[in-house]
Amino acid sequence: MSDITLHESKQPALLSPKEEAIRHDNYKFAMWLYLASEVILFGILIGGFVVWRVQNPAMVKHFHEASGLLGKIVVSANTFLLLTSSWAMVMGLREIQRDNVAGLLKWFRLTILLGLVFMGLQYYEYAQLAHHGITLDYLGSAPEFAGLGVRFYSATFFHGIHVLIGVFWCWLVMKRAQRGEFSSKRYTGVEVFGLYWHFVDVVWILIFTLFYLV
Amino acid sequence: MSDHNPTTDAVQADAHHDSHHAEIFAETTTMFGRTFPYPLYTVIFGILGVLTVSEILIAEVFTSWVKIVALLAFALAKAILVVMYYMHLKSDSKIFTLVLLLPVFIISISLMFLLVTPYGAAY
Asked: What's the confidence (pLDDT) of residue B27?
């Protein structure tokens, strides 16, 4: 064995099953630490809205009336889209754990499609709300909705950006899968992306209830 | 036999891998005393869907504090299902759970303080 081989850092493909398991858990731990920071960020945005709405119940009632039946249908549809995308994502993970790359790609295509439709519907919802005067105050919000826009849009738009990043990340994972980088023994990249995508889903579950239903 | 026999390590890692994923790979799921002809992830998806429809109906039917309590309970149940089953905290290291719960605890305490602060109180 040459000196070069002895000093070279181990490539993932050369790791033993035990080393691969440790590497897998380390990546997941790093992702959980990142998600912990996201909990604080979303906690501030969602918590800010909740505190404000408790103190302004009449305005929130007007907001729900302004969004109307169509708005409720759009937001409910978006909730089902994200729930379904989470299911598609985890089914893709299940496929790669069975060495089925084609299955992973099939489910991840669905995940991307659902994420894009979610963003399209969110854009439609924003357009409808702006039509009713619910916008950022400096853009000319209706007086009865003063202060609502910044609290509503900051949380939902920040979430929407996360969906956009998730869609792009999903596409990157698919590219890696097509290059044969994942298998039943090596799927860390898929599972770490999954943690992110499900977290985005959990955030929407809370936004859906606290912003639109309560 | 050496404690660090690579073959033994590989066998142990494979055994852990197999037991960890046996539940996930099964084509049927036993839950609530019933066996469903679907994989675990699909059953969880079904439960999430039923809970979401229930939330929408509750929001339309009830108007009192019952509505708020029920909706918060349903949202919490959905979030826990996703975290436990889709994010695998049910079977993963408890350190991951701790990493998630610590910021949730901090945010919850902060929110409670903010909610009991009178509106417009002097700072």
From this structure: 82
Count, residues in chain B: 123
Q: How confident is the model over A161-198, as pLDDT tens digits?
A: 999 999 999 999 999 999 999 999 899 999 999 999 99
Pairwise CA distance, residues A31 & B102, whole Å: 15
pLDDT, position A168: 98
What distance in Å separates the CA atoms of residue B54 and residue A70, rounded to the nearest whole number?
A: 19
Tokens of A25: 């858990």
Residues 165-204 of A with CB under 8 A from B: 191, 194-195, 198-199, 201-202
Q: Is residue A168 part of a domain?
A: yes
CA nearest to A43, candidates B72, B110, B77? B110
What does the alpha-carbon distance between residue A189 and residue A194 come to, in Å, rounded to a whole number?
9
pTM of the model: 0.88
Both tokens of A35, joined, read 């998600």
Instruction: Give the Å distances, CA to CA, from A70 to A128, A148, B54.
Output: 9, 20, 19
**pLDDT at residue A87, as a whole number:** 97
Q: How many CB atoms lie within 10 A of CB B115?
A: 12
Interface predicted TM-score of the whole assembly (ipTM), two decimals: 0.89
Which residue range is the domain that position A191 belongs to?
A: 17-213
Among chain B residues, the shortest Cα distance to A195 is held by: B87
Domain ranges of chain B: 6-92
